[in-house]
Amino acid sequence: MVAARRLVFTGKQEVALEEFAVAEPGPGQLLVRSVRTLMSTGTENIVFNRAFAPGTHWDNWVKYPFFPGYCAVGEVAACGAGVADRTGQLVALRSGHASHHIIEAEKALPVDGIDPAQAAWFALAKIAFMGARQAEYRLGDDVLVIGAGPIGQMSVRWAAAAGAGRVSVIDLETKRLELARRGGASLVLSKPVGEALDELRAHHDGELPRLVIDTTGNAAVFSAALSAVRTHGKLVLVGDTGRPGEQHLTPDLITRGLTIVGAHDCHNDATWNDASITRLFRRLVLDGRFDLGGLNTDEFAPEQCVEAYAAANTRRGSTMGLVFNWG
Q: Which one of 64, 68, 131, 199 has the fewest beta carbons within 10 angstroms of its own beta carbon?
């Protein structure tokens, strides 16, 4: 048995660090010791604050004790029977904020060569990739990303890597827009979507963008996002709101023939899934085509978990990647 530590939500807006025991890896398994884990601020803050409506999938999912996180990077510490020796390999895994993990060997995804704190973005990159799949970019397409939070930053980088013509980004926080420009945005606007339409048209040769990706998970943004889509264009919803009953259609859907499509982390298939998308993510990062520089703004020891979630909730404008350092 291995003495381990993990973060736990014990109730609404309550987080603690607790000890637990981890068994030795069984056949086909690995024991992984965490190096860094990245907070998924969108998902984890909805859960932390219980910012969701009764009866939603969030309500059915969040029961206490709740163990947050799904962006972990660590080193293989031991291999179970039947597994080729991978000791010391740097791997990414969809596991929570904990010091140690037992995981099936095929789910430990190699990310060697990348700084562990940057590699921890692999899971958020995968979620944004699902939005890129639904967008079905064509070379030269004009794209608008609404929201320059973590998923928005990843969405900008996928659009740029895919050969989008111009990528515009809207967010009210100017520091986030600076990071979006670094990731490939050609136009950044710090204003509500409804007030940005003229500037979007001016930047996109008199037209609105054909593809709009809403990463905010903010129900109030949905209606405004529809107004920013070119006639016969497409709106992709990547941000998963906790209050879907507050999202409202506008006449734009019918009168301008728009398409609305949702994208979610769980939309895996045989071709595109955690493993294949992480391989692509790693290649692009190593080739310098997927810039993660500057995205990690804060690092915390696990013992500082209360301060970490307070920062995520009170310093939205100055934080982006919030990383736990497990040593």
A: 64
Instruction: Indicate the pairing of strand 321-325 with strand 296-300.
Output: parallel
User: Residue 237 belongs to what domain range?
Assistant: 125-262
pLDDT tens per residue, range 119-173:
999 999 999 999 999 999 989 999 999 999 999 999 999 999 999 999 999 999 9
Residue that is last in its domain, among 262, 282, 310: 262
Assess whether pLDDT exceeds 90 at residue 217: no
**Cα three-residue angle 9-15-20, rounded to 5 degrees:** 70
- pLDDT band, residue 1 (cuts 50/70/90): confident
pTM over 0.90: yes
CATH number for the domain that contains residue 296:
3.90.180.10
Domain count, the chain: 2
> How far apart, in whole angstroms, are the C-alpha atoms of residue 262 and residue 30?
34
Burial class (CB in 10 A: 0-12, 13-18, 19+), 30: buried
Q: Compute the distance between CA of residue 29 and CA of residue 197 in angstroms, rounded to an integer.
A: 52
Q: Which residue has the tokens 């003495």?
A: 3
Co-location of 130 and 112 in the same domain: no
User: Does residue 254 lie in a domain region?
Assistant: yes
Residues contacting 211, CB < 8 A, separation 6+:
135, 137, 141, 142, 143, 144, 229, 233, 234, 236
Q: In this model, does residue 100 exceed pLDDT 80?
A: yes
Which pair of tokens denotes residue 43?
């998902």
**Rounded to an integer, what distance in angstroms lies between the CA atom of residue 323 and that of residue 302?**
9
Give φ, ψ of 201 to 5 degrees. -65, -40
Say whether 259 sits in a helix, a strand or coil: strand
Q: Is residue 117 part of a domain?
A: yes
> 52 near 59, Cβ under 8 Å?
yes
Instruction: Please state, rounded to an integer, the average pLDDT across all residues of the chain.
Output: 96
Same domain membership, residue 254 and residue 137:
yes
3-state helix, strand, coil in the chain (%, to 5): 35, 25, 40
Sign of CA dihedral 62, 64, 68, 70: negative
Q: Which amino acid is at 43?
A: T
